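Minutes, project check-in

Agenda point 3 was the complex the collaborators sent over. CS summarized: two entities, 575 residues total, and the question is how they sit relative to each other. Sequences were read into the notes so everyone works from the same version.
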Amino acid sequence: MNVLVCFKAVPDLDSLHEQDWRSGDGSRPETRFVKTIINPLDESALELALKLRDNNGDIGLTAMTIGDEKADAILKTLLALRFDEVKRLSVSSAPLFNPEAVAAVVAEQAGGNYDLIIMGGQSADGANGATPLLVAEKLGWPCLTEVSALELNGGLITVESQCDDGCLRLEAKPPLVLAIGNAPSTYLRVPTLKDRMSLGKRPVEILALNDVSESGSKLTPLTLTVDDHSRSAEIIDGGAAEKAAVIWRDHVQPWLGKRRR
Amino acid sequence: MKFSVLLNGCSESFERRAAELRGFIRDHVGHEFVADKTIVLCPDFKKRDYFEANSVTPKLALVSLGGYQPEKALAALKDVCRDEEIMLLPGDFFGAEISVRLGARLGGAGFTGVTQMRLEDGKPVCDKKVYAQKMTASFKIEQLPLCLSIAKGIAEEADRVNEPLRETVEIDKTSEAGGEHIVSCGLTPQPDEAGLEQSDFLMVGGKGLGGPEGVERLKRLAEKAGADWGVSRPVAMSGWAPMERMIGVSGIMAKPEMCLCFGASGAAALYAGIARGRKIIAVNRDGKAPIIHQSDAAAIDDCLAVLDELAKLA
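CS then shared the predicted structure for the full assembly.
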């Protein structure tokens, strides 16, 4: 079985300070100086794919991303984690609000070569929540969403998937697109130093991609503004006991009194 | 410009999602838009009275599927919705999935997580949260039909306006193809036992709790104080607490009257889950963490030390 895992390298938004959000050119915040990480739901997708192979040896794993050279360190790590093939479709800037274009590229690359396409359900920055769904539409494949666990049984895929009424356990026939949701304990494993030194030195396949940022988009971004959630932030001083006393006496207890009445 | 509402009547949460969409239309949709009909996917027509009682609009179309299966639903909706201009879907898993795929199938646009819709120069403009909920982006929709799902937790539930139902149409799509890839399917119901969405007193723990033992201390304090408790995504992802306790954009969107945050940095994705809270009190050792200036009161300290002192007072 051949599995394609798609991921996006994104800026670590948690490390942006308040003033950083207001920098940039108005089309996106300035994140060039922030650490690059794997989009959290895509990280789960990569780890779930590795777990799938842990339990079923005969699986070919390919990892693919669209973006600039910031993703290459991640791709090297994936080589060290024994992904058979890793590739980057090189663009100077990955489309942020154009899931149509990303899905078209993924579908074209995947066509006929894979049984499973796995990716996170949504990216942290663009938050379109659409790419895996559109890949499925373009390929005419079924899509299972909010996947939190997967196994291979014979030629069938068993997945756990959150739905609005609970957790579904589905047994399905490939080909499938799997959109990964909140999956516990799926932080990407760390390769051994030995594997990093030997396997991680293999070449990353880099393919030039034409600019797809505007292609096929059905939306035009108009404005992007920072939300201000500032509150009064009264700082409570003293030792731990004094702080707890102020929290309880001045804030919680008076409210509890009203709540009970 | 007309729009219709699309709901999953096969789901236990149908009634609540209908109430949320009523609230969304009242508070978040421009008056230039006119609600046309409510389309409900349902197992059969036996509960027609129930769906009529909860219809969002005076016109109702019931589409029977036998049971909800996304591929089958999409095949049916492609025909049922072929003349629609704008479809409004709820902010749940159903809405997020179907809005995008139906938009694509109808040759239009699919859009998720919408917080506002208005008309500008004759075209719909939708707002949504991006960049981990820290920014709001506005988009002009260039191609209709538009299928959009609303942002989770954005809308207040609203009662049905006392307007008589004018028309109910029944459409039988039980023989529609789709879902043949599924060999077996079992559902483990997960009712919202914790009731965190309705909690008025919530304690939230982040990575600063240090591990499962810290989560246990938070839980004991919450129980003693009569509060509910939840955790940030990193805590749930690390397996220190069950996923159903996760607060934030990918978990529970709460609206507590009183919210105490322990050892959570206030990353935007978590903060979205408590931003509608009336009072937020933070305890965090990092004075520069976003949660500090996003709180009404803050103690800069080891969260477990303050938590243990609070346990003596509760």
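Noted in discussion: Chain A has a mean pLDDT of 91.
Follow-up: revisit at the next meeting once the mutant set is ready.
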